[in-house]
Design a protein that fits this description.
Blueprint lengths: L6 E3 L11 E5 L10 H13 L3 E7 L8 H21 L2 E6 L2 H9 L2 E6 L5 H13 L3 E5 L7 H4 L7 H9 L2 H4 L26 H7 L16 H14 L4 H4 L12 H5 L5 H10 L5 H24 L11 H9 L11 H5 L6 H13 L4 H14 L3 H15 L6 H10 L21 H7 L2 H10 L2
Parallel strand pairs: 2-3, 2-5, 3-4, 5-6
Antiparallel strand pairs: 1-6
Helix pairs in contact: 3-4, 6-13, 12-13, 13-19, 16-17, 16-21, 17-18, 18-19
The chain binds flavin-adenine dinucleotide.
């Protein structure tokens, strides 16, 4: 089912029953499976006796995106295209800005359905469509479990302040979603796209995208691969997740974050499968759902209620004050951004983490924390540390440029955290050191493993 709270009417225009098709503008939820916006559009198509057109707008200069991100996205979309066409919908990809292209396509549509995203440009596109499309627009949330406004009506301080609010609503939203068969095939429609994703590598080569970062092969893109990862995780990662999830040398992590970022898998489907898994303890399931739901959706809450979510000014006052008090403290080591980006420090653990990021587009959560805290220690001002961490995060991680990116980089500087004992450079902001990694984990093993990566 599609819960009522997932659907918002973005305008009060009427449904145009004379239109040729129902239009779904796919942007955030880049999947055919378990996608509430798609199912909402499919049900409208059947109700009106119309075919369904799914449109995707490809933007070569998408904010902060580079070849690594585009390769992952396009291969995933090629699978989505195949699946949609099999269902009888038409999937078209056009090159250009969503407000313009979707406004044009909406002229022949009965109504427009879109999915939902929280980043600045995603919100702006939908607001522009509100003004330019004279057909009914429905926005359907499919990439968080509890829709943001149902969880809270304000920016939350921390996981502890949002946890109860989210958890009290989770059961209302963790429900299966069945696929709607389409009654009218879209084959005969004249509407066409500019690009053929069946040949996505050629499309990528022709696109004028930022080529600074190459594609990676650690993650096979797409919904099928996402579900294969999930199956593997349910089989061998979830048991013991509660006790061992922090260990980068023997990772229990699901590695689902790139798929979640590109909307190639539904968080609801993940939660359903985790809840139903036989074998893992309740503690393991709860620990994972805390990350998937509470922490991840706290990040969406932050971005939604903080228009300048990518700015140092959004850090809590106490954190800014204490970092300012320690701004002139001696830094025993200073590295340039270039040295950091080249994984060229005196710290083998940090270099390994940076190498994992450069070579694979991913890093274990424990190493992300250590990696970011060291950037604070090794750069000349907290502001520069903040911009450096965000720059590297969004350039190299496949899951970068996500609400989680902004909330997590903020966390390095005290966001969603508490004050700790005061110390040099960090003030009252939480500090991490190599000794912690050595004490708790077989960290040399992690370094050796990274060295084996191509
Ligand atoms: C400095 C720093 C930068 C980070 N940058 C990003 C980023 O750009 N994109 C991103 O998605 N995550 C980011 N994270 C959060 C977290 O590290 C990753 O989500 C997680 O490591 C992804 O791996 P996984 O899917 O194997 O996690 P799992 O442990 O398997 O968790 C499952 C899912 O829960 C969510 N999750 C897990 N840990 C966290 C967390 N600490 N905060 C919020 N959600 C979480 C993610 O969606 C993740 O995919 C960052 C954390 C830090 C400390």
């Amino acid at each position: 089912m599609i819960e009522r709270e997932r659907i918002q009417e973005l305008n009060d225009e009427a449904v145009d029953e004379g239109g040729d098709y129902v239009l779904y503008w796919m942007q955030q939820s880049q999947r055919e499976r378990s996608n509430p916006a798609l199912e909402c559009a499919a049900r409208w198509a059947n109700r009106l006796g119309k075919p369904l057109v799914v449109a995707f707008c490809l933007i070569a200069d998408y904010p902060d995106a580079n070849r690594r991100h585009f390769a992952f996205m396009l291969e995933g979309l090629a699978e989505t295209a195949r699946r949609l066409e099999k269902r009888g919908a038409s999937f078209i990809v056009r090159l250009g800005s969503p407000p313009e292209l979707i406004t044009e396509l909406a002229e022949s549509a009965t109504l427009l359905v879109c999915d939902r995203g929280y980043l600045r440009h995603q919100v702006a596109w939908r607001n522009e469509l509100r003004k330019s499309v004279a057909k009914r627009i429905l926005q359907v949330e499919g990439d968080v479990i509890v829709p943001i406004e149902c969880a809270s009506d304000k920016r939350e301080w921390a996981a502890r302040t949002i946890r109860k609010k989210i958890n009290s609503r989770v059961d209302d939203f963790v429900r299966g979603l069945s696929a709607t068969s389409l009654n009218v095939a879209a084959r005969g429609l004249a509407v066409r796209g500019d690009l053929d994703l069946a040949r996505w590598p050629e499309v990528l080569d022709k696109l004028d995208v930022n080529d600074d970062v190459e594609a990676v092969d650690r993650f096979t893109p797409g919904t099928e691969a996402a579900h294969a990862k999930l199956t593997g995780f349910l089989r061998s990662g979830l048991v013991g997740y509660a006790d061992n999830r922090n260990d980068p040398a023997d990772s229990k992590a699901s590695e689902l974050s790139p798929y979640l970022h590109f909307g190639q898998i539904s968080p609801v489907e993940i939660a359903l499968k985790v809840k139903r898994a036989k074998g893992p303890s309740t503690a393991d399931k709860d620990a994972f759902l805390e990350e998937l739901i509470v922490r991840r959706e706290l990040a969406c809450n932050f971005v939604y209620f903080t228009p300048d979510y990518d700015s140092y000014q959004t850090l809590p006052d106490w954190a800014q004050r204490t970092l300012q008090d320690h701004k002139s403290d001696d830094r025993p080591k200073l590295y340039t951004r270039r040295q950091l980006e080249n994984a060229n420090t005196d710290d083998p653990y940090w270099n390994a983490a940076m190498q994992e990021m450069l070579r694979t587009g991913y890093m274990h959560n424990q190493m992300r924390m250590y990696w970011g805290k060291k950037i604070i220690e090794w750069t000349n001002t907290p502001r520069y540390a903040y911009s450096t961490a965000l720059y590297l995060n969004n350039k190299y991680f496949l899951d970068g440029r996500d609400p989680n990116s902004y909330a997590s980089v903020g966390w390095l500087f005290g966001l969603h955290d508490q004050a700790w004992a005061e110390r040099p450079i960090f003030g009252k902001v939480r500090y991490m050191n190599a000794g912690g990694l050595e004490r708790k984990f077989k960290i040399d093993r992690y370094v050796r493993w990274v060295n084996t990566l191509a």
